[in-house]
Design goal:
Layout: H1 3-6, E1 11-14, H2 20-27, E2 33-37, E3 58-63, H3 68-78, E4 82-85, H4 91-100, E5 105-112, E6 130-135, E7 161-163, H5 172-176, E8 184-189, E9 194-196, E10 199-200, H6 202-218
Parallel strand pairs: 1-2, 1-8, 2-3, 3-4, 4-5, 5-6, 6-7, 7-8
Antiparallel strand pairs: 9-10
Organism: Galbibacter pacificus
Pfam families: PRAI
GO molecular function, one term: isomerase activity
């Protein structure tokens, strides 16, 4: 059975990219998405130019309660393929953003700790392209630990989502055992593969990518 039919699509997003040479080295591992954070309070804030990448890699800009004008400027400047909203962006905000950027992916982040009310997703269902579930913590992302994935058993939607939140090499077995009925579009990794904020450990990432792709081939 194809990955798409089984639920776990096997895509990979590597987020928090910051340094030019490191970006190119990570891109050589051929992830499906690279994430660039445009939030000044983040230690992974990208204030440089996002380099040109292979067309197979989609560039996602990460924003936290930014103005739509600011997002549109970054999308154009860096030739982004999509936008990840990591703040308290409202339904109306997302709708306006989609109207302004109709050709770009919009990913809305929701943070989970010990429980989650999935009914809050309903108003976003026909507006955003994907959800992303991350760990609720002090920071709007990059907190370094995973939430309880068992909560996702109650996920009521068919909309594909990104699974994020402190995912590291130690989660490979857990990823293997994810319920194949869940419409997971991609696994999103960040802080567990860093030498310092924004600087990824290429060797560790490569090992993970190889193991992760092995899972893809078996599903």
């Amino acid at each position: 059975m194809k990955n798409e039919e089984k639920g776990l699509r096997g895509r990979l997003k590597i987020c928090g990219m910051k340094y030019q040479d490191n970006i190119k080295a990570v891109a050589a591992l051929q992830p499906d998405y690279l994430g660039f954070i445009f939030y000044e309070k983040s230690t992974r804030f990208n204030n440089g130019i996002v380099p040109e990448l292979p067309k197979s890699i989609q560039k996602i800009g990460v924003f936290v309660d930014a103005t739509i004008k600011f997002i549109a400027e970054k999308v154009q400047k860096h030739q982004l393929n999509g936008v990840q909203l990591h703040g308290s962006e409202s339904v109306d905000y997302c709708k306006e953003l989609k109207e302004q950027l109709p050709k770009y992916l919009i990913i809305k982040v929701f943070s989970i700790k010990d429980e989650f009310d999935f009914s809050i997703l309903d108003p976003y269902e026909n507006i955003v392209d994907f959800y992303l579930f991350d760990t609720k913590g002090k920071l709007p992302g990059g907190n370094g630990y995973a939430f309880n994935w068992e909560i996702l058993k109650d996920y009521p939607s068919k909309k594909p989502f990104f699974l994020s939140g402190g995912i590291g090499p130690e989660h490979i077995e857990k990823i293997k055992n994810i319920d194949p009925k869940l419409p997971i579009h991609a696994i999103d990794v960040n802080s567990k593969f860093e030498l310092e904020p924004g600087l990824k450990n290429i060797e560790l990432l490569n090992e993970f990518v190889m193991e992760y792709r092995g899972i893809r081939g078996k599903r």
